[in-house]
Specification:
This protein is an alpha+beta fold. It is built from three helices and five strands, in the order H-H-E-E-E-E-E-H. Strands 1-2-3-4-5 form a five-stranded antiparallel beta sheet, covered by helices on one side.
């Protein structure tokens, strides 16, 4: 499954701006964020539905639908919580 392209990411600009403000996250390429050198958040466009993958503490990723403000808020809140806990391993 391919990562979201520039056009898909453009639909998420407010969310991406908020993610860029989280201390400790680095955007290695548009829409792909790392925490302490490990992939942490990235986005997919699945038949027009935007999905975010957020890394779990013990490996793997949780999936978040981010087409709505509610979904975006949940991703942002969980990402902040995991960064604060240092969930990068």
């Amino acid at each position: 499954m391919a990562h979201a392209d520039e056009a898909a990411l453009a639909r998420l600009l407010p969310l991406l701006r908020q993610l860029r403000e989280i201390k400790g996250l680095r955007e290695m390429k548009p829409g792909t964020f790392y925490l302490k050198g490990s992939a942490f958040i990235h986005f997919h466009d699945e038949a027009g539905a935007l999905i975010a993958d957020l890394k779990r503490a013990r490996g793997g990723f949780d999936r978040y639908p981010v087409d709505t403000p509610v979904g975006q808020r949940k991703l942002l809140d969980d990402a902040k919580r995991r960064v604060d806990r240092g969930d990068d391993e």
